[in-house]
Design brief:
The chain is an alpha/beta fold and 378 residues long. The protein has helices at 27-40, 69-77, 84-102, 107-122, 129-147, 152-184, 208-217, 234-246, 258-263, 289-298, 371-377; strands spanning 12-16, 47-52, 63-66, 189-193, 221-227, 250-253, 269-272, 276-278, 283-286, 303-306, 312-313, 347-350, 357-360, 363-365. The strands form 3 sheets. Strands 6-5-4-7-10-13-14 form a 7-stranded mixed sheet, with helices on both faces. The structure holds 5-S-methyl-1-O-phosphono-5-thio-D-ribulose (MRU).
């Protein structure tokens, strides 16, 4: 099967109302934005956020469009858009929408409204640090512009450009991660992955699946085993769909099958993404990742984490400092049962000693050296 990334939709796009959009993956986003403009009457040039609704996959490929940052916050909370870098992109876009909305206010009120909105956007989900990182980057740029005397509409316009830059840089980082990661994989290898750290979870291309795509392009991939990833099933609904769409051989397994697939010698490497990486190399990622890492160590299989440097949090010295999101019990047990409590942490922390290497856009690092990746990016 030939690799076909052109068939993958963009998870997040920021578009100006009335613009034609571009070719390739963003055509569907541009069409959704055009429909929104004609139905809602958005003013020409207003920023519009378009997201692929990942709740509907794989049954339907539907896009959502809004000019309201509050709506973007709901989509992030409800997992319409998910995956650490993608929620960073959506968060930055939401700040651009908020700035446009507040731009008719006087300078002081503009700053207050932008600050209020950004703190709500920043806290929409707590674990993936990319969201706070992207919002903070936008707000630092806004504050610098205001200090230099920029008018609110100038700041709003600059924030649109900043959000677009974050998305372009994210895709470029993913392609570098892919190239570095592919070098670590042997010819004819089978990879196991958990959750979705693919194009759908980023601005485009993916982190863990970016490694898979680069390796597939080099003819190295025999098979990808995709863990189902209970309870929200990002593996079965998203990763399996994405890999099949991209033309990469994929076998879906239930989470509890990973051990026997590894025991049978069918897995040469594990590659996963990350939501936040502590300074010591501990890695927070989708619940279940820790179990996969323990299994990989038991069976002597390398366990790689692929993530951009925006996922590294120098303020978290160790994994236990990373806040772990607890989600609704209905994700685990749709019909409550008398006498049954449900615990639903969305992420777990894999200790650095179980991680073979962390692959970033600055290269592959031993987990304990991960801060070096940030220094190389400066
Ligand atoms: O709850 P989700 O679907 O947002 O969780 C996503 C993950 O855990 C991914 O593995 C992680 O964000 C890396 S995405 C490149």
């Amino acid at each position: 099967m030939a690799l076909n990334l052109e068939g993958l939709p963009c998870a997040v796009s920021l578009i100006r109302a009335g613009s034609r959009g571009s070719n390739g993956p963003s055509n569907a986003a541009a069409a959704t934005a055009a429909a929104f403009v004609s139905e809602e009457g958005a003013e020409p040039g207003a920023p519009l956020l378009v997201c692929l609704d990942q709740r509907a996959l794989p049954a339907a490929e539907e896009h959502l469009c809004t000019d309201d940052w509050r709506c973007a916050v709901s989509w992030v909370k409800e997992l319409a858009v998910r995956g650490a870098p993608a929620i960073g992109a959506a968060g930055a876009s939401a700040v651009a929408l908020a700035a446009h909305e507040a731009a008719s206010s006087g300078r002081e009120r503009f700053c207050e409204r932008l600050e209020e909105a950004s703190s709500v956007i920043r806290s929409a989900r707590p674990t993936a640090v990319n969201l706070a990182w992207a919002v903070d980057r936008c707000m630092e740029s806004a504050e610098a512009l205001v200090r230099n005397g920029a008018a609110p509409d100038g700041v709003a316009s600059a924030l649109f450009d900043e959000a677009c830059a974050i998305m372009r840089e994210d895709e470029a980082a993913n392609r570098r991660i892919g190239a570095f990661g592919s070098e670590l994989l042997p010819q004819g290898c089978s990879v196991l992955t958990h959750c979705n750290a693919g194009s759908l979870a980023t601005s485009f291309y993916g982190t863990a699946l970016g490694v898979v795509y680069a390796a597939a392009d080099a003819g190295k991939i025999r098979m990808v085993f995709a863990d189902e990833t209970r309870p929200v099933c990002q593996g079965s609904r998203l990763t399996a769909w994405e890999l099949a769409r991209a033309g990469v051989p994929v076998t879906l397994i239930c989470d509890d099958m990973a051990a026997s697939v590894m025991a049978a010698g069918k897995v040469d490497a594990v590659v996963v993404g990350a939501d936040r990486i502590a300074s010591n190399g501990d890695v927070a990622n989708k619940i279940g990742t820790l179990g996969v890492a323990v299994l990989a160590r038991h069976f002597g299989i390398p366990f790689y984490v692929a993530a951009p440097t925006s996922t590294v949090d120098p303020a978290a010295p160790v994994g236990s400092a990373i806040p772990i999101e607890e989600r609704a019990t209905a994700e685990v047990l749709p019909q409550p049962m008398d006498g049954v409590e449900v615990f639903n942490p969305a992420f777990d922390v894999t200790p650095a000693h179980l991680v073979t290497a962390i692959i970033t856009e600055a290269g592959a690092f031993r987990p304990r050296d991960v801060l070096q990746a940030l220094r190389q990016e400066d």
